[in-house]
Fold these 2 entries.
Entry 1:
Amino acid sequence: MSHWEEFYATHLPPTDFEDNRILLKEFCERHKKAGERIVLITSGGTTVPLEHNTVRFVDNFSAGTRGAASAEYFLEHGYVVIFMHRLKSLEPFTRHFSGQKFMDMLELHDQGPNTSITVKPDSVDVLAPVLASYKHAQEGGRVLYVTFTTVSDYFWLLRAACECLAIFETKALLFLAAAVSDFYVPSNEMPTHKIQSGAGAPTIQLQLVPKLLAPLVNLWVPHAFVVSFKLETDESILIVKARDSLNKYKHKLVIGNMLQTRRQKVVFVTKDTSFEVSLTREQMLNGMEIEDSIVTNVITNHTEFLKTHQY
Amino acid sequence: MSHWEEFYATHLPPTDFEDNRILLKEFCERHKKAGERIVLITSGGTTVPLEHNTVRFVDNFSAGTRGAASAEYFLEHGYVVIFMHRLKSLEPFTRHFSGQKFMDMLELHDQGPNTSITVKPDSVDVLAPVLASYKHAQEGGRVLYVTFTTVSDYFWLLRAACECLAIFETKALLFLAAAVSDFYVPSNEMPTHKIQSGAGAPTIQLQLVPKLLAPLVNLWVPHAFVVSFKLETDESILIVKARDSLNKYKHKLVIGNMLQTRRQKVVFVTKDTSFEVSLTREQMLNGMEIEDSIVTNVITNHTEFLKTHQY
């Protein structure tokens, strides 16, 4: 048994797995019939529980900005979107407004049984376009939200999504922006209860999480256009690691980014080329987001690919 | 140097520390003049970074429901509130509505330059009372929000808050509901860059985080009414551990709760007594929250204490 098969064999699916599988299947079949292009976006970090009754876990840094912003741009370009994200990470549209920002935009007109609530006129300008895009996506059933928390939830959902996406063949784009844990604590080495501090400081022995790109590219969605991300904090190894990944898994594109500069620039690495996508100082001051450029460039690549790989 | 002094000596304050200190000082001085009772609520989990350029960290489970709900009930009972919470954990009032729930409540009336947005009539009933309480707290300046992420941010903020709270003497209540990490990775043993998976699976050697209750009770707010929480997953040790904590730190009250049943019952442990506070099945079905009972009971205890410890 390969490493990834063993992982599935030793980790149970999440409790809402069957419900999500039905949603994914229905969503894919409906849009396949309509002839749409589809993108699966994974977003946010995954956790690795340290105890069965989980109080503590190891987490990966990711607010989910890249995935949530990219979802909006893919929708704008006519793709339908499966937004597979970490519970509580940022979501498209709502990401622009925190809970307090929402409350502060509202005006209460207290008139007993005729009480009404309106958005303050000066907030309408900001909220209206976002709300219109949100409603368009919701009402057209153009986006499906599914959530994970642990790395094992992510494994189960990703495979299920791929199984449904396979019918799109080359028209499926996978935009794997989630920050997946590299390490985990095997189920049989995990304590049942909260680790007690009285027993002194513990040592946590981690194991490597299997890489899913291999079965994903070779078995699950062999015709799809697959894009993965590489995040590093040390610039000197970024392109080398991106190229290594591409050579190993044979997918289409790796987008490399540095933790410190990820909002200004990324590097697109394909089998034969590498080029930087970045925002100018002026674009940043105008509030442009790098995800706008990333998505435009990815779609150009996908369109090129479709021309040469259409059945 | 004691363990906690050493921790401050080896961890820098967060970048927004001075700003928060000024806010805390202004808030406390203003309300002290007005003769208010004040509660400091800490809420949400803390993180322990595993790398200086943080990609990975160990986290403690806590959505922040208990702290956020309790803040609402303390405000309702006339306390002013410092809500010191983990960034992105739940906040009072906004906790009732996720981002999508907010969007779904809104109706867009697209009329060009006269576009308006209103809350749908059937959502007004739910939103209006929450919005009214939120506005009352905001407009009266009755709640101050300050945030932390890492355990060391929490350390710095908590001490600063206590230094400002001390002027309230017995009228200050500390409601320490945050789930603070017990373990951390010392700064000098932390790698600078993201741990590389190519080097094999790492072992993480953790150290014990010093307990702040000792200096807090003895030095920082010696006259205040201090309530701490104890969360366990193993019921058999809960009361014993709560009592141990009380004997060790000499504060007023420990509220013990089990991870699995924390929404239905808790146990109040004082120097001489212990009693359960719980919701009946009917109360739960009616949507009552256990924080309502917890806060009422804590305030009764605080009021009793004030009678015998007034200067």
Entry 2:
Amino acid sequence: MGCLDDGHFAVEIENGVSIGHDGVLLGNEGGGVIEDAVKILLDGLGEDVNREGLRKTPLRVAKALREGTRGYRQKVKDIVQGALFPEAGLENRVGYAGGTGGLVIVRDLDLFSYCESCLLPFQVKCHVGYVPSGERVVGLSKLSRVTDVFAKRLQEPQRLADEVCSALHQGIKPAGVATILQCTHIHFPDIESVFLDSNHQGWVKVLVSSGSGVFENKTADVWDDFFSLLKFRGIDMDKIHFREPSDQCWCPSQSGKVSSKIGPVSPVMITAVASIIKSLGEDPLREELIGTPSRFVKWLMNFQNSNFDMKLNGFLCGGSVNEEVNFNNKKISSELNIPFWSQCEHHLLPFHGVTHIGYLMSDGFNPIGKPLLQSIVHFYGFKLQVQERLTRQIAETLSPLLGGDVIVVVEASHTCMISRGIEKFGSSTATIAVLGRFSTDPIARASFLQSIPSPTLSGQQ
Amino acid sequence: MGCLDDGHFAVEIENGVSIGHDGVLLGNEGGGVIEDAVKILLDGLGEDVNREGLRKTPLRVAKALREGTRGYRQKVKDIVQGALFPEAGLENRVGYAGGTGGLVIVRDLDLFSYCESCLLPFQVKCHVGYVPSGERVVGLSKLSRVTDVFAKRLQEPQRLADEVCSALHQGIKPAGVATILQCTHIHFPDIESVFLDSNHQGWVKVLVSSGSGVFENKTADVWDDFFSLLKFRGIDMDKIHFREPSDQCWCPSQSGKVSSKIGPVSPVMITAVASIIKSLGEDPLREELIGTPSRFVKWLMNFQNSNFDMKLNGFLCGGSVNEEVNFNNKKISSELNIPFWSQCEHHLLPFHGVTHIGYLMSDGFNPIGKPLLQSIVHFYGFKLQVQERLTRQIAETLSPLLGGDVIVVVEASHTCMISRGIEKFGSSTATIAVLGRFSTDPIARASFLQSIPSPTLSGQQ
């Protein structure tokens, strides 16, 4: 496996529909291995692999992974060749332009890649440019396409930048190539630390660059031109610290903190993840990948099927209410923007965002506090979930504690909406559950909904 | 042709690489017809269809059009079936949630579609939601996928909203479906009016909605919930005028103004465009499509190969300089944000943006005015182009008029970067040409580049 000779795109299509020319290959080779491995992982999480929501999850995960790592089966040569166009330079004057020396930049390409340290997708905003040489330019979309070939592999930001740079240099043979990547990696708290660290930052961000030819020297003037062209698009390089080669690995899974609640990691699950990596065409013994199966399993175990009491323990106390809206003789109390982290049971991919909770109470009565609300949200978040069920479960659990009139809104970004061939980067999902008076009284609903401010999802690019 | 039974995605890949399972079909049936038609159009524009940049344009256009209208060959049933999941509702309480009655919304889906009035792509920001019923929810990504099936056809905003709404209603069988589309259509001036209307708005925008079931009544309370969920994502529906059925067709090509310079439209070209529409599986005699070939050709003729004198006529006068930056004993004069419109010769798709021009002059000397700069930009814009060449040609033309020290920056959004399977919605391209002192003096370059403010491309979503 590994490299096929053709450059076909395998677009994710779920539910048994074929995924393009190499669909057969997927079904017979890589796909089967991944599906079996995913069944082992689900079993290790204490899940019933035959329940309705999970039954096709192994198939869906296999297809998503094959699609997300299609770069292993693509060749830059096929993309760039035939998209090189002769373009006259400036022959009779002193200067650079056209096919000779005039900088060409494509900015703000949204991509995603897979972190080789933990197997989670990470987002990439890519800026790529080159200085033409030999009166030859490349079709602009090819800068995006070539970047995507290397993004769709197990990656690390600096290597991704270097590989794109080097591939474009070889393909276009320009005076130089420059790449700047703004990478954003999801940073889940584990189920233990989430209760201790209320200011947990949901993202890790790094900025990396790579340059060839005239860009090889990081202090070359041509880099100033490049930065200027980014700057007046609102990207201020002066304010950003570029990552140094000596900096620690960026992946949060490398920080080493593991919840003591998780216990020893199952060797069977680790072997299953290693078999997935191998079936993608990678070498699980490559230095950077050796610890990956173990890190992935440790992370996954945050979402194991577990019981309620363990987590609510110690949090059953009252507290102050953040927001109040007068509503007839009662007040709408609300707790807005409670962060949550969860794992989509259809694709084994993270989704995360905020929960807004409202409830109707007689004047002054306030039975529970923010910590309890938070722990209920976290309890239902840290498992294999779908957003609709998460919303309902939070509402149903709160209802007896809060007098029955409850509204819950969950807003989330789903990793499965940016990976898997969907690639809807800016999209977000909202779900509502309404109980008691909120289900019958549109004015009560509207009063609560209007009290929600307009933030962007925290840390979102 | 028309509807195939499978739902395969045909992803655009250029330069002779196959495009998926129906690649053969493309080559033998639809593709050949479109390629022949595109050759006729290029010929009608006075172009040499064998010159290097255009040689593969017919093939590229055929593939892009087939990819951009793949919705004709997809079935919603294949996408939704098997992605319906049982999800318990709230059985023992008064309320709505989970699989029963709790609103589910996906916001900010970026798509593009093709305008049936003029065949140009238009951008769509889609918000779609439904109220589950029967304890059944649909995979979130399917809302995006089904929308895309109808977007990838020749469309009109209201029909697109209605078709998506109706297809999701049939597929999910929910209590109701709601769609809101923010559509943005490029609005080119023609080569005549661009000189007269310096405030030309580059976009036409409309907002449409459609609702089924509980959303059928536009004043239903559930619409308020829907709007609230959009509002706190920064989308303020109160400020937006929804399009009424009685409103005029939104497509700017329907306004009827045609440059007198273009002359009678070639029947051969019109027949060629009609054959393209037919080969996509559409009926060129459908009422809304009857005038489309003629409108497309009229628009295309703005980009015919033409001579210089005609356009510069009347504009060779001096004028004031907008910006000045002191630079040693000379001054860098600059004219920033001159809009331009052009047509990508590789894909016959529009690109547009702004040009920044800087030149070095002795104190007080100012040979030409903004009108001349604008007409030179427009002259090189209104033809089949590539951005690199456009930048160089503007610089070369200005050099003898401005004393030889010239810098030109072109910033553009390329329609070919959002359609054709690339779909990089936020991306933009920048090119530089430098002549004389600007090519040798990095401080001069930096002084000019730093003087460019940070606008977003005008009118951009």
